[in-house]
Amino acid sequence: QVQLVESGGGSVQAGGPLRLSCAGSRSLTSMAWFRQAPGKEREAVASICSNDGTPYYADSVKGRFTISQDDAKKTVYLQMNNLKPDDTAVYYCAATWLRRCSLGVPSPGNFDYWGQGTQVTVSS
Q1: CA quadruple 63, 113, 30, 19: dihedral positive or negative?
Q2: DSSP 8-state secondary structure symbol assigned to residue 100
Q3: Which end is more exposed in the chain, N or C (fewer Cβ atoms within 10 Å of the end residue's Cβ)?
Q4: Handedness of CA 22, 25, 26, 28 (dihedral sign)
Q5: Distance between terminal CA atoms of the chain?
Q6: pLDDT tens digit string along 64-113?
Q7: How far is Cα 101 from Cα 115, in angstroms, rounded to an integer?
Q8: What is the spatial distance between Cα 30 and Cα 78, in angstroms, rounded to a whole number?
């Protein structure tokens, strides 16, 4: 069983930055961030393939968010800049080591392990 521990959420004013971290208990082939706002479905925000660092970003966060990974392929980061009130949600880290990394829009079904979620609140 892989443990994913998230940190870095909080409250910030619009335009400000936050950095999320997700530490895994082993190396992983693919890691991602999803988010879910009240009354909305969970959506993919960003993902990264560990073998070559290929990133994916949702259109709504391109140019503002950056996903990165440590050399051990155990920890993933999400640097969020120029935050907007629409970014308010619970952010979940997801990962797998059982599957090859899939390109394109991340699907929750492609990830076997999930973090507990961390709240991000952006005020206007």
Answers
A1: positive
A2: P
A3: N
A4: negative
A5: 40
A6: 999 999 989 999 999 999 999 999 999 999 999 988 888 889 999 999 99
A7: 18
A8: 14
pLDDT at residue 49 in the model = 93
CA–CA distances in Å: residue 13 to residues 55, 79, 116: 27, 15, 24
Q: Which residues of 61-71 are buried (b: 16+ CB within 10 A; e: fewer)?
A: beeebebebee
CB 85 within 8 A of CB 124: yes
Spatial separation of the C-alpha atoms in residues 24 and 26, rounded to whole Å: 6
Which residue matches tokens 């950095």? 19
Signed CA dihedral, 64, 18, 112, 24: sign only: positive
